[in-house]
Write a structure and sequence with these properties.
Chain lengths: 541, 541
């Protein structure tokens, strides 16, 4: 359907499922065994006959490129055969919901070696209840094809439950006699995660395309913001463009937070009037073929003078965050540590808040107290891929052999001694530093896609409950100055950065800074000419 | 937030949770015991850190009017006390996701007797894993307040699992010593279902409001259809209006099926070009405060002559379906049996198909063979309420006492003898006829809201696999005539009918028939004047 959407002046390649499977296998250091991963199921809401939204399991998708429910994928390490198992087609249901792919269609669409149907009843059985049945039915098929590997598991009733379940542990390596849930499943999951960290050209193009559509949708909001008066109307315009461009699925719940709501980081109600609020944070990005984009823009809400800052304070905070983002982006180069970039963001934000007079006192003491966290309470960024918060590089499970990333290079490099005293920028102990070897897993590598999203917020709940009520923190905050800045609400600017061989490419195309203001002004001008104000009033509830 | 949206020239009443609880209690014929129902939880997608969409449990909502996750409600039969249990507020999460209601806010918002906080850790624990913990923590509270009733259950480990689980069986009546999962849970669920069948004024107003917004959204599509060229663009326009009117939640996945897709009843891909297709079926309705609307309109896609039928065949099928709908609507009066209305729809559709020459042969033989089901393969309608397919009246569980509906009247009336031979209109054995007493539970009563949605489809898969390949059916189908009608795809028209004391009220306001055509023509005319064609081309991917 939307294949044409990922075309970039050439033929569209299939999603490289086979290459992914091989890369994962390379990471397993196993010569025998079968990888088995289940697709997500289409199930009704509890106590209802309506289907709950379907979201494909990302591990399954990585090995197939298939977004259909109820499938399985198997990859045999020994023979290098990637098989997609499709739900049998239930003719009596076709009139209601259509059908999934036939084997022939699957072979044409997906980068697999073979397609097969699952036994007829597996397609309608809930997965957990039906596990035994599925396996019993599958047993003949599996025995016939891989007599040495899977049979042992099937014969072992205790392990049947694990094979096709859909919990976080369900990525199971079914590998001959030595197979066991814990170790093998963790090892396989980690092997896939390690591959997922480095995006190939196909994946990059999907994220590029998601960013392209998100940019269009953000632009549409900029053009219309002058005549909108409620967060819901802005979200409506954003979603209109995404849906029209076949990107209904969002990588996360869109955030349209005006005024104080800008300072609630995962605000999703999106239902309040702009009234006299100064700014709106729009954090919204669509998915394309299960790949995410993640885009944040902060706009002035200045109805009387669209495309201009509503206050000096708003402009100052926006410019501070923009400066931090720009400096961090410049640091997104291969070989650099993301910790260094995050440190830079912290230092610059703190310096900016001191300069504006919101923070006061000695810089080293403020840093030590962590008072800046009252205004920048989240991390600088995260990987983006099949998840909007995609898997980061992680130390290997204790019992694993050395593992390489998707590009065949080892991940871990020793953390430079100067970076070991991480607590001086007050982050919690990071999960991607190996606590024993102090190796740093945040080294930037070509093919990584990571957001850069600094922010400054004025959240009265956070400040009152954790900072202003604590003398050790309060001493570093100038409450008179703070009062002037509270109405700004919050500012965040976020782009998706692809690390390239030579540096980086910013995949996010939505206008920001002066270009954004110009876009709002142009929209307001066009709106005036087209009498768009009138249309808006007509459309109000 | 959206309270103002349900205002109808007066103060807004709270959702009548207490009245619902009392009505349910009346149906239980128990003097002691506590009804306990859990809200839905906010949980991440499997293998992901992103929250899955939240949908409130409808039984919980019926007893609270509260759309917040992680709550519980208890209603003590003896003392008539309705208590809402709120998740404890985790201050460290407020900066991320805000917080749920405080007890004070809950008392102001909801029609409850008291609000209490659940123990702190229950709010973040997944429900199934945390059940024991929740109950242990709750035990003190419960013992203190209801020493006679719940303690027995808490002391019985085998039943702990049942109390707050979220499976279809989780509606549990915790009633003193005699409590047991099976019987009591079924009895309570049935008692609530029986109440839900008859809507009170508050519920009717919510469904009215949902229909009002859906109508606006359908109208917007009508006005723009002349310059749209893909199903996704039509859905985008529909969703824009719903979201802007604070009705982002849809009662079901919107269906925008053009041409052949119109004949796939639950088609949801909504991604194909109109090309030269004749018609589009739009089946889309939003929710307001968890209450559904369900609206279907079928539009001509006639770019060269907007608002006119693209073919004689399209017009004939539309007019047939419209005539059937009109006649059925006229039959929606208190005391009538919905079976009679469904029978009428079948008879009229069959007669129409015979008249058009698509069906041929003797009417009685065609009826007996059920050949009309190749063109009208679904039921005539269903209840609408907290679910789009809301609970219908059902025979009571075997071990229950007599039960009354929300209006205090008994449901069951004996099925008239003439209606007992149901198979003559070829429906499957209905689930709301008591097989032993042959009592008819489909008698229409004031306060019921039921869709009337006849349709005629030309689904080649259905016809080829179940009718044209079967000589017993094929003999009644004129394939030459059929060929002319295949490009029509399908037509369905659906309204939500409220049964009133004197007859009915059509809650669905979206234009249909001539008013719909006129709306398309007006939109095309306005579009021409505003140069909207140009805007559309600009917006294409």
């Amino acid at each position: 359907m939307v294949l044409r959407m990922i075309a970039r002046g050439g033929n569209i390649d299939k999603y490289p499922a086979k290459a992914h499977a091989r890369r994962v296998a390379q990471n397993l250091h196993e010569s025998k065994g079968i990888i088995v991963v289940s697709a997500a199921q289409l199930v009704p809401w509890p106590n209802s006959d309506m289907p709950a939204p379907f979201r494909q399991d990302r591990y399954f998708y990585y090995l197939t490129g298939c977004n259909e429910p109820g499938c399985r994928v198997t990859y045999e390490l020994e023979t290098d055969i990637l098989t997609l198992w499709l739900p049998a087609i239930d003719k009596s249901r076709v009139i209601w919901t259509g059908r999934g792919s036939t084997v022939e269609e699957a072979l044409a669409k997906y980068d697999i070696d073979e397609g097969r149907y699952l036994p007829a009843h597996t397609s309608t059985l809930p997965l957990q209840e039906g596990t035994d049945v599925i396996l019993s039915s599958l047993k003949g098929e599996l025995e016939q094809n891989w007599p040495h590997s899977v049979f042992h598991i099937i014969a072992n009733a205790a392990k049947l439950d694990l094979l096709f379940s859909s919990t976080p542990d369900d990525v199971v390596l079914a590998s001959g006699i030595r197979s066991s849930k814990g170790t093998k499943a963790r090892q396989l999951q980690w092997a896939i995660d390690s591959c997922r960290v480095i995006k190939d050209e196909h994946e990059i193009n999907l994220i590029r395309q998601a960013n392209r559509i998100s940019a269009r949708a953000h632009e549409a909001v900029l053009k219309h913001i002058h005549h909108l008066s409620n967060e819901a109307e802005a979200e409506a315009e954003y979603m209109r463009v995404c849906i029209a461009h076949h990107a209904k699925e969002q990588a996360y719940n869109p955030i349209f937070g005006s005024g104080v709501n800008a300072a609630e980081l995962h605000y999703v109600n999106n239902d309040q009037d702009f009234s006299h609020r100064q700014m709106i944070v729009i954090d919204a990005g669509c998915e394309v073929h299960c790949y995410a984009s993640d885009v944040t823009r902060t706009l002035p809400l200045n109805r009387s003078n669209p495309g201009h800052w509503p206050s000096k304070e708003a402009e100052q905070i926006y410019n501070l965050v923009a400066k931090v983002q720009e400096a961090c982006i410049a640091q997104m180069i291969p070989g650099n540590s993301f910790y260094r970039v995050a440190w830079l963001a912290t230092e610059m934000t703190m310096a900016g808040l001191l300069e504006l007079g919101i923070l006061k006192g000695d810089k080293d003491e403020v840093r030590k107290a962590g008072t800046w966290r009252g205004f920048f309470p989240h991390g600088l960024g995260h990987h983006v891929g099949l998840e909007v918060h995609d898997v980061p590089p992680r130390p290997p499970p204790k019992d694993s052999k050395d593992i390489v990333a998707g590009d065949g290079q080892p991940f871990q490099e020793p953390l430079p001694p100067t970076w070991r005293a991480l607590d001086w920028y007050n982050t919690p102990q990071p999960h991607n530093i190996d606590p024993e070897t102090m190796k740093d897993y945040t080294i930037l590598r070509p093919g990584m896609i990571i957001t850069i999203e600094p922010g400054v917020y004025f959240n009265s709940f956070l400040l009152e409950n954790f900072f202003l009520n604590d003398p050790a923190q309060r001493q570093f905050i100038d409450q008179d100055v703070l009062k002037r800045f509270m109405p700004v609400g919050g500012v965040r600017i976020e782009d998706d950065m692809l690390i390239t061989k030579d540096g980086h490419e910013n995949l996010t195309l939505a206008p920001k800074g002066e270009a954004m203001l110009e876009c709002i002004r142009r929209g307001a001008e066009e709106g005036r000419r087209a009498g768009r104000d009138q249309v808006s009033r007509e459309a109000r509830p």
